[in-house]
Amino acid sequence: MSDETNPAETPATEAPVETTAETTAEAAAPAPAARVADPKDEDTLVLEIPHGKVVIELRPDLAPLHVERIKTLVRRGFYDGTPFHRVIEGFMAQGGDPTGTGTGGSDLPDLPAEFSTPQKARFQRGTLGAARTNNPDSANSQFFIMFAPSSHLDGQYTIWGKVTQGMENVDKIKRGSGGSGMVQGPDKIVRARILADIPTDEA
């Protein structure tokens, strides 16, 4: 469908717009600056958590299906308000479950494993991985952020991103208790957005 106006639909009696100094000034005013297109913006996730901002580099080169899922859910607003329900000191912070029980997920199908060999990518401090059950092909929406390296996870869980800014804010996420690391009154993601979607004046 064309964006051009159909002359037949234009009222013949439409009044002209009166031009004043004020309207002329408004017309001359520069438009708000648009975000400069950068391919990296589309693959950058920004989490706002109670302790500050966390910037994450997405890795479609390692896990294209998982990255696409994260972006889809972020753009739905799925992660906003979800808790870090399981947090273990010296290990990781897990979130992405709106129920906060560790058993919830999105309404989308589970994803097949996209495991990386240790030669390609390893679980280091700041690495983001996809949480799953014993079934390798059961990742859905839950994820975890590593506080420290954990080589026993290498090649066993999908790596889909890495924190590039704000790891000090991740370190402040409220810890859980006991062996399970379940958190009482957990910290929550305030807002999750893809950098390409954030207005320039907010970035």
Describe this structure in words.
Residues 1-27 have low confidence and may be disordered. With 203 residues, this protein is an alpha+beta fold. It has an eight-stranded antiparallel beta sheet. The chain is built from four helices and eight strands. Helices cover 14% and strands 19% of the residues.
Summarize the structure.
The protein has 203 residues and is of the alpha+beta class. It has 4 helices and 8 strands; from the N terminus they run H-H-E-E-H-E-E-E-E-E-H-E. Strands 3-4-6-5-7-2-1-8 form an 8-stranded antiparallel β-sheet.
CATH architecture: Beta Barrel
Low-confidence stretches: 1-27
Class of secondary structure makeup:
alpha+beta
- Quick one: overall form? globular
Q: Determine the strand fraction and express it as a percent band.
A: 15-25%
* Biggest beta sheet attributes: 8 strands, antiparallel
Tell me the number of structural domains: 1
Provide the helix percentage: 10-25%
Nearest-integer average pLDDT: 87
CATH class category: Mainly Beta
Question: Quick one: how many beta strands?
Answer: 8
| Distance from first to last alpha carbon | 35 Å
